[in-house]
Amino acid sequence: MTAQTALVDKAPQFKHSQPVRDTARTSRRAKYLLTVLAFLLPSAIPLAIFVLGPMIAAAWVSLNQWNLLAPMKFVGLGNYVGLLQDPQTGSVFLNTAYYVAGYLPLVYFGGLALALALNTALKGRSLLRGVYFLPVITSWIVVALVWRWLLSPSNGIVNTVLAWVGIQGPGWWTDPAWSMPSIILASAWKDLGFVMVILLAGLQAIPTDMYDAAKVDGAGPWRRLISVTLPLLSPSTFFVIIISLVNGFQVFDQIYAMTGGGPDGSSESVVEQIYDFTFRYGRAGDASALSWMLFIVILAVTLIQIRGQRRWVTYG
Amino acid sequence: MADATIAIRTRARWAARTPASRRGLVIAIILHVAIIGGALAMFFPFLWTLITSITPGANLTSTPALIPANPSFGAYAKLFSDLPFAQVILNSLLLASVTTAVQLFTSSTAAYAFSRLPFRGQNVVFAIYLATMMIPLQVLIVPLFVELKTFGLLDTYLGALLPTFASAFGIFLLRQAINQVPRELDEAATIDGAGHFRIFGQVILPNIRPALATLVVFSFMSSWNSFLWPLIVLRSPQLQTLPIALAGLQGQYISQWDVIMAGSVVSILPMLALYVFAQKYVIQGVASSGIK
Amino acid sequence: MKRKLVGALAVAGVAALVMTGCASNPPKADSGPVTITYTNFISAGANEGNLKKIVDAFEKANPDITVQVKTIPYSGYATAQQTDLAAGTASDVFDIDGLSNYQSLEANGQLAELKGVDGKVYNSGLLDTYQTDGKQYALPTSFSDVVLYYNKDLFDAAGVSYPTSSWTWADETAAATKITDKAKGIWGDHQPVTYNEYYKALVQNGASFLSKDGKKAAFDTPAGLEAAKWLVDKSGTTMPTIKQGQGTADFDTNLFAAGKLAMLHTGTWVFGNFAKVPFKWDIAVEPGNTKSASAVFSNGIGVYAQSKHLAAAQKWAVYMSSSNEEVNVRLDTGWELPTISDSAKLATYLNKGAPANRQAVFDAAKQIAQSPSLGANSQAIQDAMTAALIEAQSGRETVQQALDSAKTKIDALLAG
Q1: Mean pLDDT, chain B, integer
Q2: Using CA atoms, how far apart are residues C22 and C16, in angstroms rounded to an integer?
Q3: What per-residue confidence (pLDDT) applies to C173?
Q4: Chain segment A59-115, per-residue pLDDT in tens
Q5: pTM score of the predicted model
Q6: Which residues of C51-136 form beta strands (DSSP E)?
Q7: Are β-strands C281-284 and C261-267 bridged in parallel, bridged antiparallel, or unpaired?
Q8: Least CB–CB distance from C391: residue in A148, A154, A264
Q9: Cβ contact, residue pair C387, A262, below 8 Å
């Protein structure tokens, strides 16, 4: 409290000598905060009620044992302890990490190559952009069917073609060693179009005079890519990485549709395990506990990325 | 005779090119082949879906016949006779349109706040927003269901819509886009006496059209293909959406694959149309900002 | 004060007497018009119209009851049902997806006891499935069972005589081996390697999946090992291997329909798949080893324990599972098989065309290999058993090793 305001509190008759600046600043500040609220509330209210609320409820459920049918039984941190001691937990986290590590580079670089190629004055590029986006809008039920057929160990196209060049194709989704790579391949293939669309929008935002300036400086195509395109594309790249990480760690639809977690648990992801806990094994408490463990992993990975972005993400 | 002349001319043109431009041409050809090959690989599943949809009594064969024996559009007719298909499509359209419109509003306003309205604890709030993407729906679904039951919104359009009104994905996408709009534009408008609301509407929004168009596509798609939440919250037959109706075609023991595939084809078409339409807004002028 | 207390006690006493009197009678009907809700999966996809016929007939016969139908796709039914029960929004009447669903619901007190139901109307084996401790908690609505399909032409070509009701596993293996001709891509016998096949094979071999008190796994016996080998050994000898596609959706029916499989163990729901095949085929009850038993899958219908209209709900449940209207709609449209015991009413089904031996469908249902009561962790136990059998089938473990590891896991799951 400054000397001036102290005077105001103690002696009302000095109110008139209070500088006009303070009131104006306070009311400007209040107005500013109201503006911030006006812009945030439309999204904050639905998120708070329909996501944060259930998240807190899920946290409460994680401290109980519940099969959805009988009343809940409080067990404190028992679920967490049990999960940490269960080797299956480590196994599903490893499988999921394996998935993310394989999926992310594939889908990003593939999508980047596509976006770059389809950003040029290529004939029929709008048609091509549409075709590459088709898998994105097709549901996993259909995509899973097709990929299971493509990768069928005995008579799928992939193994047939490999046989032509004399390679014995692996037992894609019947071999525990190959089930996750099959899912990674199918997922990267399906999401290429998504990454392409995001990066295309980002590429469009780069003003052409940046390239002209670089050309004038004598930079060749590769140099232009590294020094102009990629840095100016970094906000979109950052977005793709975060979204791919957040979604990748929660991979479920394709596992459910393609392998159901098998064979021998080799493709069981964390969310597949959560689904099984909730709706197949009647262990909703464990499901919630596991999902909060996953949450911490995703949050940590995301925060690391956000911290790191200062070093490589440049905004126009 | 004419062939020989063309051959000679082509060879002459090739000889006239510099080594660098020859390399460029080869690269361009390889690029074209790779892209078109990739496009065929992308298109193949859709083709297979189409073919299965016109193969009556189709089963999941391990080697689908690429040319069906007795092609027929009976499966499409069945879509309308077995299911209240027209109603189902209307429901999906309604829900997807409302979701998209609302998400455009909530995402852009929040993105503006995070990009242009610094306040204490802004990063924490943004982190909380992002955190809402990090818990899977499978875990939220039971508490969410109980919540909506308390509000009396089960088996209603509103009940299906409310949880979709805000999306951290959309907010994040638009925030990145707004971050790239030069602040000089803001400043210029401020000098002209514009407050935040005018800057938002007249400076920012027009300058992030590609991102807005992208968000339209993804919001619509996410709602259009959404299965788990509508399944749980919508029960009356006249409210059901497309993915639920299609899932109904997969019976306990047997499934009518030709009808399911027909449904998938019908489901993909509106999305594709929207995407093609939105692309017009994503493309600003001639695409000359690529590598030459 | 005292008078009030005495009065209250008197009322309580009378109420108690009235309640005990009601014990074995059907619930009292509500007075006035009632609307009940019915959530089902059984009509999803192609049979909503057929269900409506049954509902309309019921409403006509019971003018003061209206049935509000909600239909959920089968693939999402479990999720929807469990969410409803967790939130207390379940319908008055709802479908039950077989024995394990029933056991889980009954164990958690979600089903109302159905009193005063005429049991003689139903197939006794199927009715027992939905009974616990002598009390009826649900009713069977439809069933199908697993039979042995066989390709008569392939049998003729190899000079082997057709399966009969006195066949044992040895006969089946002999026939399969004789007919299998890998060079020509002809296989002798396909049977899935799953929990569902295994618990049945155990019964067929005089063994059992669970101990008598149901607390421990009991398949680690010589008979149990033999039953497991019966399934696993087919792979690669009379049946394609997993690498060759065995175990994928529709693989077996496609192989049979292509005329490349002599014998097929699968459900009666695929009759339609073979309607137009160019070869002659028929069905027989599955051969047992020391005992004849078949796997029967049924769907049930139950009344929600917290329903406010128990009487009307029970009326609808009984109608949907045994009324003449329901039986006729099912038989006319081929919408699964009704669960009644009166074979005269089933005549139209028996004379409908291929396969000729439709009687086998009902014969199989007379000797049911009853599905074991697996308790709260039912699904996890089934998954563990199937996974172990597949390990043995793929050759990654021996059959003995697979059974041992399965027993350890399953005993733990049974203990909860």
Answers
A1: 85
A2: 10
A3: 94
A4: 999 999 998 888 899 999 999 999 999 999 999 999 999 999 999 999 999 999 888
A5: 0.81
A6: 65-71, 93-96, 131-132, 135-136
A7: unpaired
A8: A264
A9: yes
Rg of chain A (C-alpha set) = 27
CA distance A188 to A254: 11
Q: Is the pLDDT of residue B290 over 60?
A: no
Q: Count Cβ atoms below 10 Å from residue C49 Cβ, excluding itself.
A: 12
- Pair of tokens at residue C263: 């014998």
Element housing B165 (H / E): none
- The chains in contact with chain B, meaning 3 or more Cβ pairs closer than 8 Å, are A, C
Q: Which of B21-25, B257-261, B275-279, C213-217 is predicted with the least confidence, judged by mean pLDDT?
A: B21-25
Distance (Å, whole) CA C83 – CA B228 = 11
- Is residue A288 within 8 A of residue A59, CB to CB? The reply is yes
Considering only CB atoms, B279 lies closest to which of A122, A129, A287, namely: A129
- d(CA B137, CA B228) in angstroms, rounded, equals 8
H or E stretch including A97?
A: helix A87-118
Decide if A201 touches C, using CB distance below 8 A. no
Burial class (CB in 10 A: 0-12, 13-18, 19+), C26: middle
Question: Which residue, among C379, C308, C301, has the nearest Cα to C88 in the 3D structure?
Answer: C308
- Our CA-based measurement puts residue C221 at a distance from the nearest CA of chain A, in whole angstroms, of 24
Q: Which residue has the tokens 């009390």?
A: C135
Q: Please state the ipTM of this predicted complex.
A: 0.84
- Mark out chain C residues that contact chain A at CB-CB < 8 A: 78-79, 82-83, 85-86, 104-105, 108-110, 242-245, 247-248, 376-377, 379-380, 383, 387, 390-391, 394, 396
Average pLDDT of span B256-268:
85
Residues in B closer than 8 angstroms to A298, CB to CB, are: 134
Q: Which of C48, C75, C270 faces B247 most closely, judged by CB atoms?
A: C75
Sign of CA dihedral A195, A196, A197, A199: positive
A210-214, B220-224, C7-11, C390-394: which range is least confident on average?
A: C7-11
B289 falls in which pLDDT band (50, 70, 90)? very low
**Residue B274, CB-side half-sphere exposure with 13 Å CA sphere:** 20
Mutate to test the interface with C, among A274, A279, A286 (most CBs of C within 10 A): A279
The low-confidence residues of chain C, meaning pLDDT below 50, are 1-24
